[in-house]
Amino acid sequence: MKILVTGATGKVGSRLATRLAKRGDRVRALVRERARGEALGAAGVELVEGDLLDAASLAPAVRGIDAVVHCAAFFRGATAEQAHATNDLGTQHLARAAQAAGVKRFVFTSTGLVYGAADVVANEDTPCAPELAYPVSKLAAERFLLALPELSTYVLRLPFVYGDGDPHIAEIVPRMQTLPPTLRMSLGHHADIAQAVERVLDAATPPHRIYNVVDDEAPDLATLFASVGAPPPDGTQPEKARSHSTLLDGRRIREDLGFRPVFPRLADAIAAARA
Questions:
Q1: Tell me: the pLDDT tens digits for 188-200?
Q2: Is residue 47 within a helix (H) or strand (E), and if so which, with residue range?
Q3: Distance in angstroms between the alpha carbons of the first and the last residue of the chain
Q4: Domain ranges of the chain
Q5: Which residue in 47, 50, 163, 196 is a FRET match for 254, CA 20 to 30 A apart?
Q6: Which one, of 265, 251, 245, lies nearest residue 120 by Cα?
Q7: 211 counts as catalytic
Q8: Which residue out of 134, 154, 162, 211 is catalytically annotated?
Q9: What is the pLDDT of residue 127?
Q10: What value, to the nearest 5°, has the Cα angle with vertex 269 and ends 12 and 4?
Q11: Beta-sheet strand order (sheet of 46-49)
């Protein structure tokens, strides 16, 4: 399969593109600057320059492609306008280019934050009520993609992603220092995000399907912080936990595609890293 990966210089995309190349797929990465993709090129990934905000630049990227895996996004630090431009309109540009090129499959990495502060463990049928600019823009992109009958779209709603040398956990310590130490978070290891992508690329599943991708255990923040040697959060601003409070139900992808986490618990990933 010839696959275009966007966001291939980011945390999820870089690790995913490398894994897909290693399993034998022909991988092309969309990059804004070729110099930023040198490590990908060394791993056998073809580089093509383009920008989601420039619709005309995307035609060469999708030419001859069987499937698109769209990981690119503007997350932290984005204004509502910037999130909308990149995550919603940029996705629309890419999808239209993919359609015009005859691409058969489109995999969109979204976020579990689209559920907002749900009062239940959210499955794919739980109503979405995002409150922040990032998930608002991702949900808008989901809805656009799922309304395209000609493009077989698969939406993967991701949790907090970690592992594979990613400093993501350490990075969120200062940002979440005031949240309750008992707040639980759904996690997904990079290896399992890649597994989910591979399964939707390969399986003869019905098109226009949404899957939550999540490990088996949702540790609390005290445990998450401890995994990088940090003291627990102080809980001085519990009201800020609202937008991070929803846990994900991952049964659908297990039942449909046989997904089983390589690292079902954070402790498993820690033990593997120490081995």
A1: 999 999 999 999 9
A2: strand 46-49
A3: 34
A4: 2-167+188-214+249-264
A5: 163
A6: 245
A7: no
A8: 134
A9: 96
A10: 20
A11: 46-49, 26-31, 2-6, 67-70, 105-111, 152-158, 209-212
